[in-house]
Amino acid sequence: MPFKRRHDSDDESAVVKKLNIGSEEHSSDLESDLENATEELHLGYLKTINRSRLDFDFEKVCCISLATVNIYACLVCGKYYQGRSKSSCAFSHSLDEDHHVFINLDTLKVYILPENQEVKLRSEVLEDIKYQINPTFSPEDIKNLHQLKEISFDLQHRPYRPGFVGLNKIGANDYANVVLQIVNHVDALRDFLLKGEFEEELTKRISLMTRKSWSSRLSRPHLSPHEIMQYISDKSGKRFSAGEQKSPKDFLVWILTNLHSELTPKGKTRSLVSKLFQGKVKIITEKVANGVPTGSRLESSTKYWILTIDPPAFTLFKDGTGLTQIPQVKITHLLSKYDGETAQKLAHGNKMFKLITVPPFLLIHINRMSGSHGLEGVSGTSRNPTIVKFPFENLDMSPYVEGATGPIQYKLIGNVIHQTIPVTKMVDGTEMAIDSHVYKIHLLDQVRGDWLEIQDLNVKPVEKELLFMQETYLQIWQKVL
Ligand SMILES: [Zn+2]
Fold first, then answer.
1. ipTM of the prediction greater than 0.90, yes or no
2. How far does the centroid of ligand 1 lie from the alpha carbon of residue 119, in Å?
3. How remote is the CA of residue 13 from the centroid of ligand 1, in Å?
């Protein structure tokens, strides 16, 4: 049956009406002929889809009009266009480029343009694309993530582990990538985010990223954080963006605070996020007069998302061969800050800390970047390169928790590493030496029992024994029940 392009659906119904004249049986034959012909035609168009050019991690913006609503992706070239009416950018694109298959990025309905026909195939030919845009997880799928060791393959048959998927560096966003990986890998939070459809804007976007990251049907084994960083930049008033490197610790606190505020039910003060990550610390302030404690003590308490520990003042010391050695310190030594006795000496008094509660997922920040006790970098910025030694399992927090009656054991599940790389940069025609700060993350694959390093796009196995040799910056500990 020859096919003529029709430009709106009214024409189509007119044809169907005409065909309806005659006996019922006859007309239903004709209808089904028409349906078959349309289906055949649509299948022909679907062959023009170029899956290797499709990437649904980008902000949903029309590349011509910059509109952000009613956006379609051209499945032939991957570009985004608004609308499908005769005056729309998608419509023009279909005529200009001879590209005819478009998907609505909200409804996931597929249309042929300029005919403006919805593709209603019974086959599952488009399911992989719809799944790429919006992966979904059943309770069974989520349960399987805790036990299945199968690896997946992308479009080019490259193997990857779902969940251990790199994130593009689109500027200076390595600091954000490590934080997004943390959110992806705390299993109690991940399982919640995988369940899917949220109304809250930040949660919705993080959920989508988590669902994509754990998808076993990715077309390529990495994701772009472009859309989510664009949103975060707007929501944070440009405090956190892809273009400028910030502190991963500050960004993690921002993410947790905002998720917490979105997910706290009305009239309540706690959310899943605060239940998983928030603890409470007691602060004891002892007044000092003329350098002598007065015996007057004030107690207060505050909630924390992250415990900060401070490596001791850094001094380079030389070994017998004249080489400088980087000092090493045990994490338990640094955690004694929270034993309620070790005092931080401040101008107006001494401060002691004791933990009142510790959360199921304990975040520990090693404070290397502030204070004047660091190693001068080539750019003059200082950092403390002290090596912090830590166990992988059986970190007992009970010495730091008020009223603890038995061990409170934690195991390490993630470790953010800071690296300083000296680079030269041209400033006003002069070569300047500066420090480039790089963040990457080591993650425990809890199902397979090994560790992987993710630095932006790159994912590789890493020897457990080598983990503490680098500058650990932020650690994620899971309480062992
Ligand atoms: Zn196109």
1. yes
2. 17
3. 28
